[in-house]
Amino acid sequence: MRIHSLRQSISAFLEGRSLRKQIVSVTVILILALTATTGLSPHSAMATTSQPWQGIRDDLNYTSINAMVANGWTQCGQGSSQSYNVSGGSLTLQNGAAMCRTNIPTGVQNWTATARGQWAYNQHPSSSVQIVVQTTNHVYRLAAGESPGQGIVVYRDGVVIINSCATWSPYCGWYPYCVVDGRFCYYTDFGAWHVYSLNMAGGILTASFNDFVDYKYVVGSYTEPDPGTDLVMVSPSSGSDIGVVWSYATAAPFDPITTSVSCAPSSVAVDQATTCTATVVDTFANEAIPTGTVAFTVSGTCYAGGTYYTCPIPISSCTLGNPSATSGSCSVNYTSAPCPCYDWQTSPGTHTITATYNGDIAHPTSTGTFNLTLTPLDTTTMDVSCNPSTIVINQASSCTYTVTDTSPTPTAPTGGVNPGQLYACTLRGATTSSAICSATVIGKQDGSITIAPNYGGDLSHYKSDGGTSVTVGRRATSMVITCSPETVSANVTTTCTAIVTDTDVSAAITPTGSVHFSSNSTGTFNAPSCSLASTSNTGIARCSVAYTPTATGRHEIIGAYQSLDSSGIWEPGDNTHNGSNAATHVLVTSSDPPAIAGGGSGGGRILNT
Fold first, then answer.
1. Which residue segments constitute the domains of the chain, with CATH numbers given?
2. Measured between alpha carbons, how far is 561 from 196 in angstroms, rounded to an integer?
3. Which residues contact 495 (CB under 8 A, 6 or more apart)?
4. How much is the average pLDDT of 269-285?
């Protein structure tokens, strides 16, 4: 009578599907795997523990379906084209075929059934991937791929009780078949492993979905009002028009457990670490030590589809250890912000830390939370002043940074400004609320130097920025021109030499460029200009031209210090110096012999220095 009832339960699900009349001849691999128990035999086994029933595991190492049936299985599928085959540890079910396992003792109210599979072919099946579990009074079916846009769904007696699309979920709309235009599959799960789990613990049914062996995502839970939760049957099955290959199946009781979380310290600054410990306790009368892993998350904000929503942000995972007779525990470290940081990069207040125990063969999943208090750091401001604020090339300016704690109960900031960068210094001269340090800025070229220091923060202070600028000008020069001889007859050549000197503060720089010559009288230069050459004295350069007067009188010789800019235009000075001008005189006589020595205009004079 029981087998007949089970067949009716399976049939009710399969007949409710929209069966396809033309079956695509493919091999679809869906390996259903239930959580393994260490030490169990390849076929069904009963383990002797403190539990009244430890569970069953079957690795399906049969040579025929008859041998499988002889070991406790029943063919319970429906459909005219269903197909069964078992070989080499794999059970192949096609087109509505199902196998039921019912040799489960009464009284197992807390249980787990888990299926692991791999979908490989048939781009256009109309049926879903599913597992079926029956209890004393109800039948549950966990299905994925029911229809486009629908998530992972759990049915209770044919009515949806859990749907991953009810709340935000990475599997909302997960549909492994995704028919597009009836010909191609936009998204397929070929070769992707999936794990489906139904767990009943304390009257709460939890559905979980696993992409990998060590990762579990809880789809949702349902509080069962009916106390009749005793496990009766678990069934690997195939869809109406796909093939399923099973490698092993298990069913096991779950002990009720509690998961608690505590963090120490319970209140920390936003950039300080706290250690959060999860403790998993078995509360069953005949306890079993929980094993497995615990995943820690913190409540955060995510963004998708134009909407912000609250979501779990992973922190870390740990493996249970420190076993006692009834519990296990493990810890992770949590730091809320990658500080030193700015105040806008942190979220002081209450951070909800959640620990999710992933369960083992004897225990269901369980979660616990802890509200961690995070206090803000002190805010700071930075004032920057440079003296002098206007300098010339090669001149230094001293920039002073003052970092001030602006909180109601200030303390002196510590640490560095611009650590590892230009214009860096370490804070000193602390007062009750501020500290200072200085950096030297040297002008390298004319223009403006932007000073934008960054205070790097410390364990109790946020970062802050400041800024100013220093104007840099070109260096001043002077020029002297002398002609030798100073007195000549008409049409007799004299040599005129220009000396350009860097006259500004700090270390001198030797001028470069040219000196352009002109005369206020009649005469010719062998070249209109000469190129400056350095001398043995840094900061002094010189060059010479020959001048031949053709008229008698007092000739004024004028020189202008210039150079070509990047556009090929003559500009005063060079790229580090301002220009300068100078003049001298040459006395030109008309008679022969030459004029009396000393009768000229004398030495050169400086103009516009």
1. 2-253 (2.60.120.200), 257-375 (2.60.40.10), 380-473 (2.60.40.10), 477-607 (2.60.40.10)
2. 87
3. 483, 484, 544, 545, 546, 547
4. 88
User: Average pLDDT of 421-449?
Assistant: 93
Residue 366 to residue 201: CA distance in whole angstroms: 10
pLDDT value of position 599: 44
Q: Residue type for 452, please? A: A
- Judged by DSSP in three states, 8 sits in helix
**What is d(CA 211, CA 197) in angstroms, rounded to the nearest whole number?**
12
HSE-up of residue 489 (Cα within 13 Å, Cβ side): 7
Tokens for 487?
């007195």
Confidence of residue 178 (pLDDT cuts 50, 70, 90): low
| Other CB atoms within 10 Å distance of the CB of residue 93 | 27
pLDDT class of 609 with cuts at 50, 70, 90: very low
Which residue is associated with the tokens 């559905």?
Answer: 207
Q: How is 301-330 classified by DSSP, letter by letter?
A: EEEETTEEEEEEEEEEEEE-BS--SSEEEE
* pLDDT over 60 at 21, yes or no: no
Phi-psi sector, 182: left (phi>0), alpha (psi -120 to 50), beta = left
Distance CA 215, CA 206 (A): 16
> For 428-493, what is the HEC assignment?
ECCCCCEEEEEEEEECCCCEEEEECCEECCECCECCEECCEEEEEECECEEEEEEEECCEEECCCC
Half-sphere exposure of 426 (CA within 13 A, CB side): 1
135-156 average pLDDT score? 84
Which residue has 């870390």 as its token pair?
316
And the tokens for 576? 């580090």
Q: Is the peptide bond before 410 cis (omega within 30 degrees of 0)?
A: no
Letter string b/e over residues 355-368, b meaning 16 or more CB atoms within 10 A of that residue's CB: bbbbbbbbbbbbbb
Contact 545, 496 (CB under 8 A): yes
Angstrom distance (rounded) from CA 26 to CA 122: 6
Most confidently predicted of 82-91, 105-114, 151-160, 535-544: 535-544
Q: How confident is the model at residue 264 (pLDDT cuts 50, 70, 90)?
A: very high
Written as six digits, the tokens of 345 are 């990069």
pTM exceeds cut of 0.90: no
Rounded Cα gap, residues 499 and 325, in angstroms = 97
Evaluate whether 269 touches 374 at the Cβ level (below 8 Å). Answer: yes
- What Cα–Cα distance (Å) separates residue 352 from each residue in 94, 136, 549? 47, 38, 96
**% residues pLDDT > 70 (the chain):** 79
